[in-house]
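Quick one: structure for this chain?
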Amino acid sequence: MASLVPLPPFAPASESWDSYLARFDCYLQANELTEVSQERKRGLFLSLCGPEVFETARALVAPEAVQATPWDTIQEKLRNHYAPKPSKIAARHAFYHRNQAEGESINNYTTALRQAAMHCEFRDLDDALMDRIVCGVRDIHLQRRLLAKPDLTLQKAIEEAMASEAAERSAQEIRKSSSPRFAREPVPVHHEEASSEEASSSEDDDMHQTKRERRKFQQKSKGQPECAGCGGNHSRAKCRFRDAICRKCSRRGHIAKVCRSAPSDTPPSSTRKSKSSLQSAKESCFALTNCRCPSGTTIGQTDSPTRRKLNVTVLIEGAPCDMEIDTGSALSIVSWSTIKRLVPRVSKRQLDSHRVHLRDYQGNDIPVVGVGRFRIAFKDFSGLLRLVVVEGQRPSLLGLDWFDALGLEVTGINCISNAETEGLVKDFAEVFDGTLGQYTGTPISFSLDPQVAPIKLKPRRVPFALKAKVDEQLDKLIAQGVLEPVDHAKWETPIVTPVKPDGSVRICADYKCTINKALQQHAYPVPVVQHLLHSLGEGKVFAKLDLAQAYQQLPVDDATAEAQTIVTHRGAFRCRRLQFGVSVAPGIFQSLMERLLQGLPGVVPYFDDVLVSADSHQQLFERLRAVLTRFQEAGLKVKREKCQIAVPQVEFLGYLIDASGLHPTTSKIRAIQQAPTPKNKTELQAFLGLLNFYNMFLPHKATVAEPLHRLLSTKTPWAWGHRETAAFNAVKALLSSDSVLVQYSESRPLVLACDASPFGIGAVLSHRFPDGREAPLAYFSRTLSPTERNYSQLDKEALALVAGVKRFHEYLYGRTFDLITDHKPLLGLLAGDRPTPPVLSPRMLRWTVFLAAYHYRLIHRPGKSMGHADALSRCPLPAFVEDPAPASSLLLIEDLPAAPVSAATVASASAQDRTISRVLNWVWREWPQGPFASEFQPFATRQHELSAHRGCLLWGDRVVIPQGLRQRVLEALHVGHPGIVKMKALARCYVWWPNMDDAITAWVSACQACQESRPAPPAAKGHTWETPKTPWSRVHIDLAGPFHGRTFMVVVDAYSKWLEVALMPSTTTEAVIRVLRGLFATHGCPDVLVSDNR
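Got it. Here's what it folds into:
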């Protein structure tokens, strides 16, 4: 056997274990040793495997001797050691993430996919390979063609890809041979990672780096191949690092030495204004190839989670200009200051007028000076090119319109596919199924104050028209396991039934009247938002998960379920899940979420939202899988349509979080930036009221706003000119700067001031500092819709409160805050510490239920001290946001069978009625101070319960019938001749007017048919007193007179009929007590004293 060629030993760094075993089998076949005994195969293998594998085999079979261990046992132990079977889920995850690498042929890509699919256990491997090839190819045009084929198969996809690859190579060869302009080498472009502050490296480093890169390009031009996987002088197919994992980017196919996606050594600064040191990023050179110019004129639009800057130096009219290559910009632009420095002789008159509208990546408009044609020189190119000149200090951008002329092209534009997201949703289908989850841990238990006695309230009456809908909703909750019928409970809370826009109802409980009074405050603190955001780390890609019906996924114990019992017209129902409106629910839910997700890096839970951040897509999906695994084990579920996965930036608690750090959202100060120009002194005074409230935050305020203050003088006529416009814009710029808004802090009290005007609503969220001053945190304003402008002033002020709370939900939910209003009647309707009034309009009832989920103190503050909110309401944004708690458009009277009147009829008659028309006017505008005439007195006592809808006056949910329609309504109510009690009960469900009960009584009494069939009332039985057994046991007293101007008190003993008469100076309580005290002193105290006066 001397002719045997030795088998090279196993090298784990360059070969897999399965590959080595296959080579060993080939070695046995080549030397005709396949039929030898197992002992000889064992000896051959241990002799050829190398010392490292031999020692490993000895350790694995110890204490037995390796030369005595069966060959099959040695194979199994070494395979488990060197090639353990990977997880099917992990293998599929790697398969779905395998994209075609740069310079990788379609054949090599297909082979790599087959290797990656070895442990995936696909049912149909061809379909999986076809899907991955279509989704993972680098050529976007090829991908579109493949997606357009209806009957695509794996073989057709490979053939199409190979044909496209061959055509691309042929086209490149043709261009090189036919066009000397495109035959030159790719342009080296300086590349650096972008830091928070612009910094430039030393010229020596740039020069040496450029020389090194030029030597690389020269080597490539001489035909020396350079491997993209390791940098060696061999082809990619022969590289032994094809399956290696990079230590820097964790991707397969190359090593760290040639990695092009190495992260920066220094994280970006989180503060925009503070200067940071130069970021020590590794520099490299790239060749720009294959980029087409997109349509549009948007500057700087990008979806990449990391931003890089590519800089080149061009000559503009002979002067060097450093320009940033921006593939997201369709135009090349420079600022006016830059072009004036490069070309001093140029003037704005020489520039052509422009017809382009530019915006930056934040959506802000870029003012354009004009467009000119300048002589541009770059490498071999020299000629006139179009250049857009803009105002302000802005970077010079080399856009896509110059690429063809300068010979620049771009490769490597990746398209992020949602295959990863869909795979995630598929793997956790139980969490994303949309049904109500149920927490599998310990049920929630309330700690009630034993000194507070249980409260049982009566059920509230449900209108006849809503009974069927309420029953349907109750049946649904019973089927979900949220409600459980019971006979009675210690605690019983009535429900309220707001109507949704689709006509269905929502079952809510008014817990602030019952168990909230006995619940001890939950000790778990609400987390500090800044600490949560700082715990995220330096993420580049983010995800946000939203739990569906968050609180109702938590079951409660029997005692807590009984405490949450609701009472309805169908009886009592025990609530088996944690309910909204319970004061301790936020703290309980937050503590549970933090315990559940504890220990997961980059994961921040805040009530029903969970924020996840990571440095790469792979790391993000690993963390998401960890979160969803815990949700699945805990029985919790998320709402898929509200989740955001793998996004470069996410809005969380009012902050915009991206790869560079934490930023305020532009929408928070949009109300100030886009405030319309005042049209009169009233609007200007309102705007200056806002300015005066923030006086301490605005430098040079008196100087900047002086023209506006002068315009308010009574001696100055209203004349808005260029000077006032400039001052107004300057003030808005000051007001909108970052220095105006303070940082959100959980340790400082929150104040939300809301106000309404005839055409808008506004709100300002502020922090209150220890010295009593309030600093703004965020702003909100919007215009009223045409329907909302017809609201009463009371409803407008309430709408401002509800819209403000809804707008700042992320700040306010779970915290106690002061809610400020200048409308004092709201204190009796929406105060969080008072029971809900029994009579409310449907709209106000819905808003009351909405606010019940928040902890707030409603405080009245005069309007003159609320200039900041008043200015926002009088300078609203011209945008309409739907009502956060929309009112129902249902008039119950219209649901009556053969309704006697319609809404249009009532509205027309109300407008002609002398009394109701004036009351409607007061409801729409504002009630006068009074006193009121007798005809208006019934309405004045109910002024906070009246509302207007579709021209009809409503008291609660009952229509106020004008005088001309009352007889028609009474006739309809008396159909069938019901009695007085039944007729009143029917009328109270739908209508009302002053003295309606008396009118119904008179109507029934005047009905001849009713009187003829009315039974005679039974005769009352006389009452006889029992004879007392002793004198002065029962004494009867009464007052007689006046007789001749005098009053007497008569006292009679029931046993002896003894009579005592006393002259009374007066009939007051004190005089009667004085006389009785004298009689009781004489005869003693009786057992019973009888009088006809209480």
